[in-house]
Design the sequence.
């Protein structure tokens, strides 16, 4: 009688686990890791290119306020908005620590009024 499962258990019983100890040891990030969207409202020129190129509509541009709004809950971190921005006001950082219990903390909006357009 053969017990293939038992031999597999015996083989892996004394090996190290594949998973890391995440909370106590930070996970390794790479320079090409794209995780968190950052928006610098001081550099924004209100061109709305970011909202035009976003494939998931995570970036929407409000004509009323004159600012883009970013919803990180539906953002796929593709980086198209950052590439389209002519003033580099949008950046995709490698910080992936975004866990929160409030959805509103994932919505990025400007905190000051936009200048009036002529």
Sequence:
């Amino acid at each position: 009688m053969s017990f293939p499962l038992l031999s597999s258990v015996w083989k892996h019983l004394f090996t190290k686990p594949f998973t890391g100890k995440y909370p106590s040891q930070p996970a390794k990030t790479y320079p090409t890791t794209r995780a968190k969207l950052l928006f610098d409202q001081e550099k924004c020129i209100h061109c709305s290119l970011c909202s035009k190129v976003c494939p998931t509509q995570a970036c929407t541009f409000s004509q009323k306020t004159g600012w883009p709004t970013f919803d990180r809950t539906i953002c796929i971190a593709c980086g198209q908005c950052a590439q389209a921005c002519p003033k580099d006001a949008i950046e995709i950082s490698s910080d992936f620590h975004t866990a929160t219990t409030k959805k509103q903390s994932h919505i990025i909006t400007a905190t000051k009024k936009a200048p009036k357009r002529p």
In short: Helices lie at 4-12, 49-53, 80-84. Strands lie at 36-39, 59-61, 68-71, 90-93, 107-108.
